[in-house]
Amino acid sequence: MIVKKYKNLQLYVECTLIELMANLAIYHYPNDNGGFLLGYYSDNLTKLYIKDFLLIDKYDSSPVGFKRELNLKVHNFEKIFRETGLYYIGEWHSHPNATAWYSLTDLQAMDSIASCNTVQLHNPILLILSMSSNKLLDFNFFLFDEGRLAVYE
Ligand SMILES: [Zn+2]
Q1: Using one digit for the tens of pLDDT, what is the confidence trace for 55-105?
Q2: What's the CA-to-centroid distance between 44 and ligand 1, angstroms?
Q3: Which pLDDT tens digit goes with each residue over 122-149?
Q4: How many domains does the chain have?
Q5: Which one-letter DSSP state was computed for residue 71?
């Protein structure tokens, strides 16, 4: 189990879940790969448990913004919650041959998720995996809060 902290917030994720995402990112290398994160919060909202993820279909040739909207519709998060008890809590993607730090595009994407009325997710999580051709180099979890991305240490 990996535990990350930001202020009084804790984030828990199984190593095997990160490994699964890393393996998918290796498979798609040198293209990036990613999708949605699923999990749940403790009653007082200070603990976040990331339990699963979904993939975005990268073979869709439409522009990124539209693709995101399309994927949000394709994945029925209400149905997923009813069946698994897991919420859509954020996003993950790989950075092939780049650091595990967010880009301006990443920040803007998180801002648009936080201000999207249909998903009602005001503090989305972003996971970035820094990848070489055959292994995970580094990863960071970020919390979107009041217009900025804060890194979990
Ligand atoms: Zn990115």
Answers
A1: 876 544 444 544 555 555 556 788 889 999 999 999 999 999 999 999 999
A2: 30
A3: 899 999 999 999 999 999 999 999 999 9
A4: 1
A5: H
Q: Tell me: pLDDT of 12 over 70.
A: yes
C-alpha of residue 11 to centroid of ligand 1, in Å: 20
Inter-residue contact 91 to 124 (CB < 8 Å): yes
Query: What is the span of the domain harbouring residue 28?
Result: 2-151
**CA of 136 relative to ligand 1 center, distance in Å:** 15
How many A from CA of 43 to the centre of ligand 1? 31
Measured CA to CA, the distance from residue 77 to residue 91 in angstroms comes to 13
CATH number of the domain that 143 lies in?
3.40.140.10
Instruction: Using the mean position of ligand 1's atoms as its centre, give its distance from the Cα of residue 141 in Å.
Output: 12
Place of tokens 């979904």: 54
